[in-house]
Amino acid sequence: MGELTNELLSTRGNKPPPTYNMINSGNYKFILYGLLRHFNEKAYFSQCYTFKLNKDMFSVKNKDMLLVYDGDIKNSKNNQAIIASRVNQNLNNLQNKLDKYRVKLIFMPAPDKYTVYYNYLASKKYPRSLFFDEIAKLDKKYIFVNTKQILQNELNKNQKDTYFADDTHWSFKASETIVKTMDFIER
Length: 187
Description:
Blueprint: H1 2-11, H2 25-36, E1 48-52, E2 65-69, H3 70-76, H4 81-99, E3 106-107, H5 113-117, H6 131-137, E4 143-144, H7 147-156, H8 172-181
Parallel strand pairs: 3-4
Antiparallel strand pairs: 1-2
């Protein structure tokens, strides 16, 4: 047997035969998280939360489930009135400087998935982000495109797949909707 092994190794340049692992850590995580999500919306240690929605919002198998990055939940507590006020003040100061050059500042922040779908959560266990609500109330010298409101209006019209079901990014539907609302901007 030893001769056969040595013969094979010598013909392969002394390299061991390739190994194929059919099960990797991703396969284990898929099974583990699927099981643990029955007990906890974050599967205890996943980087994603899964929330039940009070209506179908996606065109995939789990139409009424929202998959959200855990950073969106953690950051929602930081999006309070004081931060919106500071951002607004800085943008107004920047617009004052741009006025000398006759340049109009357009501020178009992108809301995270948790913020946009918050009103449709069946259970509201975690705080919502107040950033968009607070900055919308403030006096502005710049143009503020309230993408949260634009996207929520589409959800209220029963548009599905505004965001990708399994991703943090908004879909082409959201992009098209936002571009259509920006017709007021002089080119």
